């Protein structure tokens, strides 16, 4: 593996290490030194590749949002009928809520930043916009907006209910109510 600035994967390793670190310690625990150590890169690489912590965090969270949108796209692209689209949304809620706890934590960390800082609110708005565009392939814009909120809410509730998260039937009924009202 290359060790100088010619290492083509260094920037990617830094972004991945940033997301891993946030998932373990939260945004408040992020520092250039910690990320460099986790990514196994020289500390100077941090300022070479990113103008500062905000750029690093924005790019890392953008990468994360891209990954979640890709999951949504994968589920919805298989749907050809309204019934298949409803089934895809139901599958998506269960896939996301049963997925890595890391993703849940990263989502909440991003939302906390967005609640405090406009530049992160812009990032979450862009993410929601992209999600709604995918949903609008199958549903009208108002329904897509409602489904986007439903997906996030049900995902969060299922992921945090360690006792007995609601089952697929309840998710399917909620999706059906919104999409056929």
UniProtKB/TrEMBL annotation:
<dbReference type="InterPro" id="IPR036271">
    <property type="entry name" value="Tet_transcr_reg_TetR-rel_C_sf"/>
</dbReference>
<dbReference type="InterPro" id="IPR009057">
    <property type="entry name" value="Homeodomain-like_sf"/>
</dbReference>
<keyword id="KW-0804">Transcription</keyword>
<keyword id="KW-0805">Transcription regulation</keyword>
<dbReference type="InterPro" id="IPR001647">
    <property type="entry name" value="HTH_TetR"/>
</dbReference>
<dbReference type="Pfam" id="PF17940">
    <property type="entry name" value="TetR_C_31"/>
</dbReference>
<keyword id="KW-0238">DNA-binding</keyword>
<dbReference type="InterPro" id="IPR041583">
    <property type="entry name" value="TetR_C_31"/>
</dbReference>
<feature type="DNA-binding region" description="H-T-H motif">
    <location>
        <begin position="31"/>
        <end position="50"/>
    </location>
</feature>
<dbReference type="Pfam" id="PF00440">
    <property type="entry name" value="TetR_N"/>
</dbReference>
<protein>
    <submittedName>
        <fullName>TetR family transcriptional regulator</fullName>
    </submittedName>
</protein>
<feature type="domain" description="HTH tetR-type">
    <location>
        <begin position="8"/>
        <end position="68"/>
    </location>
</feature>
């Amino acid at each position: 593996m290359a060790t100088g600035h010619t290492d083509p994967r260094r920037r990617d390793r830094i972004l991945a290490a940033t997301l891993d670190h946030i998932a373990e310690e939260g945004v408040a625990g992020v520092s250039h030194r910690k990320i460099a150590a986790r990514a196994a890169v020289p500390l100077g690489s941090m300022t070479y590749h990113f103008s500062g912590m905000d750029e690093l965090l924005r790019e890392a969270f953008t990468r994360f949002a891209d990954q979640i949108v890709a999951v949504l796209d994968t589920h919805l692209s298989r749907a050809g009928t309204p019934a298949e689209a409803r089934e895809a949304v139901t599958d998506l809620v269960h896939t996301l809520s049963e997925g890595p706890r890391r993703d849940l934590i990263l989502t909440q960390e991003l939302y906390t930043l967005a609640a405090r800082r406009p530049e992160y609110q812009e990032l979450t708005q862009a993410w929601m916009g992209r999600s709604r565009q995918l949903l609008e392939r199958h549903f009208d814009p108002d329904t897509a907006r409602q489904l986007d909120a439903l997906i996030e809410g049900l995902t969060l509730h299922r992921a945090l209910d360690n006792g007995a998260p609601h089952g697929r039937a309840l998710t399917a009924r909620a999706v059906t109510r919104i999409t056929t009202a």
